[in-house]
Amino acid sequence: MRKPILGDDRGGVAVFVLGILLIFFILIVTEAFSYVSYVYRAANDLHNGIGIAGRNALSDFTTVNPADGSVIVTDNNLLEQHFSQYLSNQLQKWPSSCYTITSFQVYSETDRNSQAPVGFSTIVPGTSIYVKMDLILAVMPGLVPETFSHWSIPLTDIISQNSYESATGEWNLVR
Fold first, then answer.
1. For a 10 Å CB count at each end of the chain, is N or C smaller?
2. For 114, which DSSP code?
3. Which domain holds residue 137?
4. What pTM does this model have?
5. What pLDDT score does 76 carry?
6. What is the C-alpha to C-alpha distance for residues 158 and 155, in angstroms, rounded to an integer?
7. 3 in a structural domain
8. 137 occurs within a structural domain
């Protein structure tokens, strides 16, 4: 009489099936962590690109008021256009369909200490840009149905030449 290869009488088939399930589970967990890492890197790249584009645009279209030393935006429309150009330069490796600007608001020095736009928690620090964007990520295109294969992640960002001190909750004004 021939013995089974997997040893049915000792639970060999159950161990074999359990091993396959364990390998499948490890692959799923690894894939989930890789997508989380992908989303984090994409959001971080976009956040850094927004900051650089905003600071460059502010430096190009702001002047200092000689009377009180405040920062004045010279042209809001050109500021927004140049912000978009700087952002596309920062994100050259991304297709433009991966992000959309949903709101772009410029505040001046006269708006300092007023309420920030909806979605932002701090007061307006003075001359600043408030940007709301959607980051659109493709998740397993082709494997997942089209309606579920694209995620839209809303991002909000403030760009200001002033710095925020989180311990005191105050803005340090650039003068």
1. N
2. S
3. 8-172
4. 0.71
5. 84
6. 10
7. no
8. yes
